[in-house]
Amino acid sequence: MLNEIGEYEQYATASGFDNHRLKYFTLIKKNFSGLERALTIIAREKIFGEDDAPKNFEPERIKNYLRAWCGFPFDGEVEPRLVNRLPEYIRQNFLKSCVENCRAKSAEFPSEFIKFLEDLSPTKPLAELKIAAEKISAFAKKFSGCKLELGRAEKIIAALEELQDKAEYFDKKIFGTYTADGKNDYRLITFERVIANALVLGRLKKFFLVCRRDPFQSFEIKKFTESKPAGKKLLAANEDLILKLTAMYLVQKKFSDQKFVPLNNMNLVNWLWKDTKPEDFDLEQFKFARTEEKIFELRHVGGVNVNKFCVCEEWLKNFYLAEEFELERAENRGRIFFGDSGRAVPLARNIL
């Protein structure tokens, strides 16, 4: 969210398989939620590069990059490192770990199960994986020690199959696309919509979250719950969430003069370093210990994942965003700043 350039590298290079950003929960369990952001990041890089204005903008060329990255058929030239990245990401991050976790227990199982794990190898063609998937339920019952891993593997293979079907779906036009009940689907991903959003957002940037004073020493913040009405001390994961929400708010405020800005839970979950689900946190539980004023205020707009939020002024006035070249300015010297690598890891704390 802060380091969009690093985020692009996560999606475009083999090193993106380490400390991965797209997560099983969002990409597989939630039917490719969070994917639109990844596609928009790729489109922005291909439209703008390092320029503030579009360079040789040809919509069909951008669509081809997106098709290639998704593993769909495409025409023309596309740099090889982008081709088939999404299905490989799913195979190498998710399916591979399922198989490896089962193999770690291999001493407990007979050769027939070991042979079956070979059939689930992430390097196998999808047609062969689909055949293996038909046997998963039987093996999961017989070898219950791997039930969780095998259940995940079944969902991952189904997702790889579903992804192939999205080639035509993503190529639909922005307008005139409706759900079964005749309503426009706000969650619909299309390449046209991705490109339209990319043009609005402009070139990729690398921001830093700069603090006028140490935030968690200057302010005592606690998490207030029913079981802890007096509040409890923040965990490191709570601090990570608060900082990243603050950064998300400031980035969006660059494009909005409204107090409340959209909160995309799936983009946030992908960015957090802990495997957290949206329902696992209540943002309005974070308050100043002395006054019990909320750090964040939520406003439910509608749908499953449509919320807006704002940050209280007392907390927000301690922060601002700076691009890398701006950090050298005199007014920033001695200040604390947080940066990220574009991955789902904690923000790095530094002093200028």
What does this structure look like?
The chain has 352 residues and is α+β, with helices and mostly antiparallel strands. The protein has two domains: 1-205, no CATH class; 207-351, no CATH class. The protein has helices spanning 4-12, 24-29, 35-48, 59-70, 85-103, 111-119, 126-133, 136-142, 147-170, 191-201, 215-218, 236-253, 265-271, 313-316, and strands at 207-211, 221-223, 232-233, 261-263, 286-288, 296-300, 307-311, 319-323, 336-339, 348-351. A four-stranded antiparallel beta sheet has the order 8-1-9-10, with helices on one face. Strands 3-2-5 form a three-stranded antiparallel beta sheet, with no helix packed on it. Strand 6 and strand 7 form a beta hairpin.
What is the H/E string?
Answer: HHHHHHHHHHEHEEHEHEEEHEEE
How many structural domains are formed by the residues? 2
Helix content: 40-55%
First-residue to last-residue Cα separation = 21 Å
The low-pLDDT segments are: 182-186
What portion of the residues fall into strands of 2 or more residues?
A: 5-15%
Mind describing the biggest β-sheet? 4 strands, antiparallel
Give the strand order, joined by hyphens, for the main sheet: 8-1-9-10
Number of strands: 10
Instruction: Label the structural class.
Output: alpha+beta
Molecular shape: globular
Fill in the keyword field for this structure.
alpha+beta, 352 residues, three-stranded antiparallel beta sheet, four-stranded antiparallel beta sheet
